[in-house]
Automatic annotation (TrEMBL):
Keywords: Membrane, Transmembrane, Transmembrane helix
Transmembrane feature ranges: 12-32, 132-154, 166-185, 197-217
Protein name (record): YrhK domain-containing protein
């Protein structure tokens, strides 16, 4: 199987942006009031599917060197892609491999959240737990990604697109984790631990992911090597 490297990167970026946008819209109270709880839940489900698709695309990209080692010409030429791979020594691949199952947990939690009349125990088991697991995996993936682009966790490289993307994703993961913790349903009151933090964490975290995904497009253009030229004899 082959694919144009530039198209693969753009597809991953736009899928991440679409997923992030769904989570942003879904967490806006005005949208919830306008469309109702079920439609709002469907928005999250759709967003999680976009996230999963983008994450798998990023994993394929990480395990297919021919799709990243390109120049301004070869980026438009089909390159072989590997749908399955194993490269734990590569931090970029490791970050993508950890992130992908995290998106699957979000698929589970957002789908389970559509169930009506669930008890607090059922909600915590089928919605909150997968959400927490997904958030933990996103957080670990983001930490590995930061190390992949900077080698030192607190290295500051504001002019580097990969560094900015990695730290935007880290911020998004921290905020998603805060939202997940705040979404715990207290059995004695059937109320969220902190409804405000749950909403704000999801909204701001999704905005961070959206910004990071948008930067993938200019980051790709900057990373391209000049096209190889042949010197005439």
């Amino acid at each position: 199987m082959s694919m144009r490297p530039e198209r693969l990167n753009a597809t991953v970026a736009w899928l991440f942006m679409a997923g992030s946008a769904c989570f942003v819209v879904g967490s806006v109270p005005a949208y919830l009031n306008a469309v109702g709880g079920w439609a709002d839940g469907v928005t999250y489900v759709v967003g999680s599917v976009f996230f999963t698709s983008a994450s798998y695309g990023q994993l394929v990209q990480a395990q297919s060197p021919a799709t990243t080692a390109v120049d301004t010409v070869t980026q438009h030429q089909p390159a072989p892609v590997h749908l399955l791979g194993w490269a734990p020594h590569d931090r970029g691949w490791l970050a993508a491999a950890i992130q992908f199952p995290g998106t699957l947990f979000f698929n589970i939690s957002t789908t389970a959240a559509l169930a009506h009349n669930a008890t607090a125990a059922e909600s915590n088991r089928y919605v909150w737990r997968p959400d927490i697991y997904g958030s933990v995996l996103f957080l670990v993936s983001s930490a590995v990604a930061v190390l992949a682009v900077s080698h030192r966790f607190f290295s500051v490289q504001p002019k580097s697109f990969p560094w900015r993307i990695a730290w935007l994703n880290m911020a998004g993961s921290v905020l998603f984790m805060a939202s997940a913790i705040a979404s715990y349903l207290v059995p004695s009151t059937d109320a969220l631990l902190s409804a405000r933090l749950a909403v704000v964490g999801t909204l701001t975290g999704a905005l961070c992911f959206l910004a990071g995904a948008a930067l993938m497009l200019p980051a790709w253009r900057r990373s391209l090597a000049p096209a190889a030229t042949t010197t005439p004899h």
